[in-house]
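FORM 7B: Structural annotation worksheet

SECTION A. Query
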Amino acid sequence: MMHKMVKVIIADDHTLFTEGIEQILLSLSGFEVLAKVGNGKLLLQTLNRLTPDLILLDINMPLMDGIEAALLIKKQQPNIKIMLLSMYYDVKMIAEVKGDIDGFVMKDITAPELKHAILDVMGGKQVFILPEILQQKSKVKIADSYLDRYKLSVREIEIIGLIGQGKSNKEIALDLELSNYTIETHRKNIYRKLNLQGTAELIRFANEHGLGIRG
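SECTION B. Predicted structure
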């Protein structure tokens, strides 16, 4: 159990997302949001007057991205814990900074998952919550290849695999704890990126390219 108030700064240029994260933190006992900032440079300026215990830091931000900001902060104030947040997973990039940060989570994880991750990081653990496809070692090379070749996100690759099993939008939404609307949006983006028409072509693509996820 933590006895002192955990002070947090949230750095993200999407206001609605930032407010959502703030509400999650406020639902945890013993957490206080010191500030919310929209870019890496403003974060560094804020650290001149405020000292948080934890920074939740978006990777893609204007003026200075989260990776650059995280490395500078860790060099100057190594006791501050830093969790990176992103909509996309870059295998090589995360591998390069893994030794310098305390955690990485995808932005589309559930609120309970984020709460557990934050508590684990504050408890001294290093936490990396990856999409299911990257938790299976046999899939890592496949995922890395398709991230580069087709500009697919890891979540899109994961959804292709589930579609390849013949699962419906509703079943995929339940599996991934996402809304039907989110799954439908991902499917539209997948069709566009792969220049495919309809479910049958997408299932054929998944099977031909070994992207099916099976237990």
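SECTION C. Observations
The beta strands are 6-11, 31-37, 54-58, 81-86, 103-106, 127-129. The longest helix spans residues 180-194.

SECTION D. Sign-off
Analyst initials: ____
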